[in-house]
Amino acid sequence: MTDEKELDLSESFRQKTWNESITKDSWMVFKVMSEFVSAYETMGKVGPCVSIFGSARLKPDNKYYRMVTEIAKKITKLGFGIITGGGPGIMEAGNRGAQLANGMSIGLNIELPHEQGANRYVDSHYNMTFEYFFVRKTMFVKYSQGFIVMPGGFGTLDELSEALTLIQTRKIAEFPIILVGSEFWSGLLDWFTNTLLKQKLISPADLRLFRVVDTADEAVEHIRLFYEKYAVKVNF
Questions:
Q1: Reading across the β-sheet that carries 177-180, which strands appear in turn?
Q2: C-alpha distances in angstroms, 12 versus 1, 5, 64, 85, 91?
Q3: How deeply is 148 buried, as exposed, middle or buried, from its count of CB atoms within 10 A (0-12, 13-18, 19+)?
Q4: Residue 44 contacts by C-beta under 8 Å, 6 or more apart in sequence?
Q5: pLDDT by 10s per residue, the chain, length 236
Q6: CA nearest 52: which of 86, 105, 94?
Q7: Is residue 87 a contact partner of residue 111, using CB atoms and an 8 Å limit?
Q8: What's residue 62's pLDDT?
């Protein structure tokens, strides 16, 4: 009898926990919607932009930090705004370059356990902080006309893979994806060619979805030439 009573109590607890979980998930939908609406209202006011990704750990004396500052300045002079993740390192360098060229400097920050504060080069009215990664990633893709991908870690690879997948599956129109630093990216590119392609997990055409360059001028020129041929438009 005691065992049956304990079983009933255990089942009741599990059901209560399950119901609370469902309620919590349902209300989370409204939090997600709110974050999307707020981001759309802000980002809808910006013009054509290029997003820059890369490590938050690189310091101002790093060659890639200096290169990104130059890339952002040159892209800004083409008429594009600059979008970054709003944090330190490569993100800071991108926003810094945009401000040095008197361009639009946008930061899409994210709440993390070890809080990442916005860098001081983000325009105050385009400094946004997200709770949900997937909302933030949508903003990067929807409002970008190109991706500049610098050396970075898992987060950088995540953004790169997301863009390549969306273009490969034709969920969005093709736009320039530029990997900067052939020495850094060589291992990944070898794996693409000698493993993925060799085992027919991707097609030869997929390797043409991105360009690898080593200088700021090459990166900017690829953006310029692409939009001499194709009209600028919002993705999705």
A1: 127-130, 105-110, 81-84, 49-53, 147-149, 177-180, 211-213
A2: 17, 10, 58, 45, 50
A3: buried
A4: none
A5: 555 555 555 666 566 555 556 567 788 889 999 999 999 999 999 999 999 999 999 999 999 999 999 999 999 999 999 999 999 999 999 999 999 999 999 999 998 876 567 899 999 999 999 999 999 999 999 999 999 999 999 999 999 999 999 999 999 999 999 999 999 999 999 999 999 999 999 999 999 999 999 999 999 999 999 999 887 777 76
A6: 94
A7: no
A8: 98
Amino acid found at 215: T
Give CA–CA dist 216/64, Å, rounded: 10
Centre a 10 Å sphere on the Cβ of residue 60 and count the other Cβ atoms it contains: 12
Close Cβ partners of 12 (under 8 Å, ≥ 6 residues apart): none
Helices 133-142 and 154-168 pack at an angle, to 10 degrees, of 60
Residue with tokens 């920050």: 109
Phi, psi for 163 (deg, rounded to 5): -65, -45
- Tell me the C-alpha distance between 149 and 181, whole Å: 9
For the chain, report the end-to-end CA distance as a whole number of angstroms: 61
Single pTM value for the model? 0.88
> How many Å apart are CA 2 and CA 145, to the nearest integer?
67
Residue in the structure block whose two tokens are 């903003």: 139
SS3 call for 125 = helix
